[in-house]
Amino acid sequence: MTSLPLVFDAPKRGLPPRHLADLSTAQRRDAVAELGEKPFRAAQLSTHYFGRLTADPAAMTDIPAAARDRLASALLPPLLSPVRHVTCDDGDTRKTLWRAHDGTLLESVLMRYHDRTTLCVSSQAGCGMACPFCATGQGGLQRNLSTAEIVDQVRAAAAAMRDGELGEPGRLSNIVFMGMGEPLANYRRVIDAVHRICDPAPDGLGISQRSVTVSTVGLVPAIRKLAEEGLSVRLAVSLHTPDDELRDTLVPVNTRWKVAEVLDAARLYADRTGRRVSIEYALIRDINDHPWRADLLGKLLRRHLGQLAHVNVIPLNPTPGSKWDASPKPVEREFVRRVNAAGVSCTVRDTRGQEIAAACGQLAAEG
Ligand code: SF4
C-alpha cells in the first residue's frame, strides 16, 4: 500500500489518553486482561458505554467497586465536557461546544427532523484545508480528534435524544461528518470511529452505515482508499464549483487534486459501494452561482458520475464580517433548475441553525 501524502500528516500532540471507544472488541478484551481483570469485564464496560450510553463509572454498579475504579481510570478517561449548548429552530437544533482534556474546543450539532435525527460531528479541532469562506478554515488545524473523541460526540447525542433533551424522546438515526475538520485527513481514526458508531450494540452504537455520511474536500488518494474499505457509508464531496480556476481559490487543496480527478475518485467510490455520491455546493453570491457554472457542473457530473450523483446546494451561512454572502433566491432557483435540466438530481439543503452560527466552526471560533 502506498503511503499517504504529507497533507494527511497532522500534529499528534494533545490526543487524549486511550479510551474504550478507541479499541476494537478484541482490543478491549486484551486491555482488560492486561489490567488483571476477567475478559468479560470488557463486554460489561461496552454494554454500559455503547448500549446504555453512559460514560459514568459510578453508574456501572454490576462491576465491583475496586475493579470499576481500575477499569475506569485505564479505559474511561473523561474526554469531552460541554461548555455550552445553543438551541434554535424551535428547539429542534442544538449546537454543543465541547472542551477536550487539553482545552481544545470542538463542536457538534444535533438536528431533529420529522423523520430522522442527524448529528453533525467534528473529526478535527480546526481544519488545515483553509477554504476562505469557512470560519473553521480561518483558524487552521489545531489537532486531530481521537477515535473516542469522535465517538463520544455521538454517544452523548444518542443519550440526549433518548432522554428527551430535544423534546419528545427519540433515536439518533443519522451521522454526518461535516463539522469541524476534513475527515479524510484524519483517516484511520475516522474509519475506526465509523466502525464504533455502526457496529451493533454492545460492540458499537448500532447506527446503520447507510445512515452515515463522510464528507471530503477531495483528498483523492484517501477517497480511493475509502472505496476499498468495504463500508457502505455515503460519500459527500464538497465541490463548490466545477472549474479548476475558481476551485483553486475556494478549496485550496484543488491545486493538488483537480476537479476531474476528484470526480473520478468519487465514481470509483460509487461503483464499489453502489451508493450515490453527494456533491456539496455552497452557493455564494456572485462567486460561484453563475448560470454557466450550473451548466458546467451538470455536464461534468453527467460525464463522470452519470446517475450516481446528487447535488446538494447549500445557501451559504456567512461568517460574521466576511465578504461572502448567500445567493439571492431567484439565482439559487435558476442554478438548481439548470443542474436538473442537465439530467443531474439537485436540491437545496435545508439549512439548520442559521441563528446560532451553525456554519461549521463558528461557535468554536467565538468560544
Ligand atoms: S469548509 Fe470544511 S474543509 Fe474547508 S476549511 Fe472549512 S472545515 Fe475545512
TrEMBL record:
It is found in: Cytoplasm. Its main location: cytoplasm. GO terms for cellular component: cytoplasm. S-adenosyl-L-methionine binds at residues 181-182, 215, 238-240, 317. GO terms for biological process: rRNA base methylation; tRNA methylation. [4Fe-4S] cluster binds at residues 127, 131, 134. The keyword Cytoplasm applies. Binds 1 [4Fe-4S] cluster. The cluster is coordinated with 3 cysteines and an exchangeable S-adenosyl-L-methionine. Keywords: 4Fe-4S, Cytoplasm, Disulfide bond, Iron, Iron-sulfur, Metal-binding, Methyltransferase, rRNA processing, S-adenosyl-L-methionine, Transferase, tRNA processing. Its EC number is 2.1.1.192. Residues 113-355 form the Radical SAM core domain. SMART domains: Elp3 (SM00729). InterPro entries: Aldolase_TIM, Elp3/MiaA/NifB-like_rSAM, Methyltransferase_A, RlmN_N, RNA_MTrfase_RlmN, rRNA_lsu_MTrfase_RlmN/Cfr, rSAM, rSAM_sf. The active site is at 107 (proton acceptor), 360 (s-methylcysteine intermediate). It catalyses: adenosine(2503) in 23S rRNA + 2 reduced [2Fe-2S]-[ferredoxin] + 2 S-adenosyl-L-methionine = 2-methyladenosine(2503) in 23S rRNA + 5'-deoxyadenosine + L-methionine + 2 oxidized [2Fe-2S]-[ferredoxin] + S-adenosyl-L-homocysteine; adenosine(37) in tRNA + 2 reduced [2Fe-2S]-[ferredoxin] + 2 S-adenosyl-L-methionine = 2-methyladenosine(37) in tRNA + 5'-deoxyadenosine + L-methionine + 2 oxidized [2Fe-2S]-[ferredoxin] + S-adenosyl-L-homocysteine. Its cofactor is [4Fe-4S] cluster. It is an enzyme of class 2 (transferase). GO terms for molecular function: 4 iron, 4 sulfur cluster binding; metal ion binding; rRNA (adenine(2503)-C2-)-methyltransferase activity; rRNA binding; tRNA (adenine(37)-C2)-methyltransferase activity; tRNA binding. Belongs to the radical SAM superfamily. RlmN family. Reaction proceeds by a ping-pong mechanism involving intermediate methylation of a conserved cysteine residue. Specifically methylates position 2 of adenine 2503 in 23S rRNA and position 2 of adenine 37 in tRNAs. This is Probable dual-specificity RNA methyltransferase RlmN. The lineage of its organism: Bacteria, Bacillati, Actinomycetota, Actinomycetes, Pseudonocardiales. The gene is rlmN.
